[in-house]
From TrEMBL, chain A:
<keyword id="KW-0813">Transport</keyword>
<feature type="transmembrane region" description="Helical">
    <location>
        <begin position="100"/>
        <end position="123"/>
    </location>
</feature>
<feature type="domain" description="ABC transmembrane type-1">
    <location>
        <begin position="65"/>
        <end position="254"/>
    </location>
</feature>
<feature type="transmembrane region" description="Helical">
    <location>
        <begin position="231"/>
        <end position="254"/>
    </location>
</feature>
<dbReference type="InterPro" id="IPR035906">
    <property type="entry name" value="MetI-like_sf"/>
</dbReference>
<keyword id="KW-1003">Cell membrane</keyword>
<feature type="transmembrane region" description="Helical">
    <location>
        <begin position="64"/>
        <end position="88"/>
    </location>
</feature>
<dbReference type="InterPro" id="IPR000515">
    <property type="entry name" value="MetI-like"/>
</dbReference>
<comment type="similarity">
    <text>Belongs to the binding-protein-dependent transport system permease family.</text>
</comment>
TrEMBL record, chain B:
<keyword id="KW-1003">Cell membrane</keyword>
<keyword id="KW-1133">Transmembrane helix</keyword>
<dbReference type="InterPro" id="IPR051393">
    <property type="entry name" value="ABC_transporter_permease"/>
</dbReference>
<dbReference type="InterPro" id="IPR035906">
    <property type="entry name" value="MetI-like_sf"/>
</dbReference>
<keyword id="KW-0472">Membrane</keyword>
<dbReference type="GO" id="GO:0005886">
    <property type="term" value="C:plasma membrane"/>
</dbReference>
<feature type="transmembrane region" description="Helical">
    <location>
        <begin position="26"/>
        <end position="49"/>
    </location>
</feature>
<feature type="transmembrane region" description="Helical">
    <location>
        <begin position="125"/>
        <end position="146"/>
    </location>
</feature>
<feature type="transmembrane region" description="Helical">
    <location>
        <begin position="93"/>
        <end position="113"/>
    </location>
</feature>
């Protein structure tokens, strides 16, 4: 019983701030500034959502939502495609320089990403990708996590099936698409969710490579919203809800995969 | 019978593999390697090159200056010296005060969730949930909660504190929000580590009449050592990379005291476009982080 009391108390600490944000987004501006504060709105209004859905040229919030969705989805697909192909080669094929290549790729996991931000910015500029969604979709897929994660998973799959298929004349592309990938659905799902979340939530990169409001995603957009509606907290919180609820729902649906993936990333050490 | 055919297949693969063509591995690797070279390897080298120049993004001329950008960071008379080291100090303070909480509190959480009980998965998900939110959502939410005029926290505590504008409150707010946000991440990693400790070690401890505390000290803690090294290392790196919370929650206030090194470097490099100097700073910070990581590995090795 003592355990449940403690758990319930902790649950309040974790959930109350989220409910407060949701509640505030449904308050009128006068209620949001009233003291003492109310946890839930006494007369819920959807004005704040009306304001952000309508948007302005400086704060096209629905456009940001669409951008976030497009960028995160395409980024996720790109990560799955390039990482699974590379991981298959590193787990199943023999070639010169394999060890060195693997060591170089994995060692970048230990280097903090910010070191590359300034030269990456200049490379993106050279490619003509500044101020476009491409800058948010492609560069992040060079990260080593997906390759490392899938390689470990592929190494754990039984080789017998591949070998039997090879004997029957299958080539590696057929083995990859018909045996390895179908057997790896849980790992692919985990990587899909983690890469979607990372891209959806990314803040540091888009604030520097995107300049036009119409190409922003939600996280940098929220900081614009904060600047534009300084004390109109219902509007700012409505923006936060719009950015937060989709990932919370995604997490609720895929909890097992997310937690599995995170756990395994810790056990590699 | 089955194992026999499988063995037969295995012994024949040696002759089958070469038929797939020498180019095959490279074709599989090509898409990823292209991205890796352009967006990771090239920047790593290009960054060093930039740091050796007086590289202003907005100017055509980018003269080679050798190690001047690095020397300026060590010269108290230079324009960047004071601000850079103040930001390094801010990163140091944040790391020093956040890491102990981020290492110890999740361990408590993991102990609470370790043994099976009804609703365990639900609570684990609940405590992990803030982590799936981005730094922008979390910071904005807590800015309102910590607002001295409208916030719930000051009202609940019956105090009037400018959490985001005065010291030491700004640090307490930054550390507290970061703990709330990321506690589930380390918690889940500890949990996985605990699941890997062999059951019979606990049974043996029970036979020896060990109490709960002795069991924790002599079975759980030693069993968690490898995971602990991972948690401490990644947490130090994550804290030393703190940017979003200080950018959004305190905006470096008061007077740049909570402006972290990354915040300052990115501001110099990508807002003021003084890229040569900023690149040099990022390598100095990286070097500092490598030193801390090596020290950390040594400490753990000595204890084991």
């Amino acid at each position: 019983m003592k355990r449940y009391t403690l758990l319930a108390a902790l649950a309040v600490v974790f959930v109350a701030p989220l409910l407060w944000a949701l509640g505030t987004s449904l308050k009128s501006q006068s209620e949001a500034t009233r003291m003492p504060p109310t946890l839930f709105p006494t007369e819920p209004v959807t004005r704040a959502y009306g304001t952000i859905f309508e948007g302005t040229t400086q704060t096209p919030v629905l456009r940001w939502f669409a951008n976030s969705l497009i960028a995160a989805t395409l980024h996720m697909l790109l990560v799955l495609a390039v990482s699974s192909l590379a991981a298959y080669a590193l787990a199943r094929l023999e070639f010169r320089g394999k060890r060195l290549m693997f060591v170089v790729i994995v060692s970048t996991l230990l280097v903090p990403g910010f070191v590359f931000l300034i030269p990456q910015f200049l490379i993106i500029d050279q490619l003509g990708w500044l101020d476009s969604l491409t800058a948010l979709i492609v560069p992040g897929a060079a990260g080593a996590f997906g390759v490392f994660f899938l390689r470990q998973f592929f190494l754990g799959l039984p080789r017998e099936l591949d070998e039997a298929a090879l004997v029957e004349g299958a080539n590696h592309w057929q083995i990859f698409t018909r045996i390895t990938l179908p057997l790896s659905k849980p790992a692919l799902a985990t990587l899909a969710v983690l890469s979607f979340l990372a891209n959806w939530n990314d803040f540091i990169w888009p604030i520097f490579v995107i300049f036009s409001p119409e190409y922003f995603t939600l996280p940098p957009g929220l900081s614009i919203l904060q600047g534009a509606y300084t004390i109109d907290y219902p509007v700012i919180m409505a923006g936060a809800v719009l950015a937060g609820v989709p990932v919370l729902i995604l997490f609720a649906l895929t909890q097992r995969y997310v937690i599995e993936g995170i756990s395994r990333s810790g056990l590699k050490g | 019978m089955v194992s026999l055919t499988l063995k037969g297949a295995a012994s024949r693969t040696a002759t089958v593999v070469p038929r797939s063509g020498r180019a095959t591995p490279y074709l599989f690797l090509a898409p990823y390697l292209l991205l890796f070279v352009v967006f990771v390897l090239a920047p790593a080298i290009y960054g060093i090159w930039i740091s050796l120049h007086d590289w202003d993004y907005l100017l055509e001329a980018r003269p080679f200056v050798g190690l001047d950008n690095y020397a300026a960071l060590l010269d108290p008379a230079s324009a960047v010296y004071a601000d850079f080291w103040m930001s390094m100090r801010a990163t140091g303070i944040f790391t020093l005060f956040s890491v102990p909480f981020l290492v110890v509190l999740p361990l408590g959480l993991a102990l609470l969730l370790h043994r099976p009980f009804r609703g365990r998965t639900f609570f684990r998900g609940l405590f992990f949930a803030p982590y799936v939110l981005g730094v922008a959502v979390v910071s904005l939410m807590w800015r309102l909660l910590l607002d001295p005029n409208l916030g719930l926290i000051d009202w609940l505590l019956g105090i009037d504190i400018g959490w985001t504008t005065s010291l030491p409150w700004a640090w307490i707010a930054l550390v507290g929000v970061t703990v709330w946000w990321t506690i589930g991440f380390n918690g889940v990693i500890y949990l996985a580590g605990m699941q890997d400790i062999p059951r019979d070690l606990y049974d043996a401890a029970k036979v020896d009449g060990a109490g709960k505390w002795a069991e924790f000290r002599h079975v759980t803690l030693p069993g968690l050592r490898p995971v602990g090294l991972f948690v401490v290392t990644t947490t130090i790196l994550a804290s030393a990379n703190m940017f979003g919370q200080s950018y959004l929650l305190t905006q470096g206030a008061p007077g740049g005291e909570t402006r972290t090194a990354i915040y300052y470097i990115l501001d110099q490099g990508l807002s003021q476009y003084k890229m040569g100097s900023a690149a040099a700073m990022s390598y100095v910070l990286t070097l500092a982080l490598i030193l801390v990581s090596v020290l950390n590995f040594r400490l753990f090795r000595r204890r084991s």
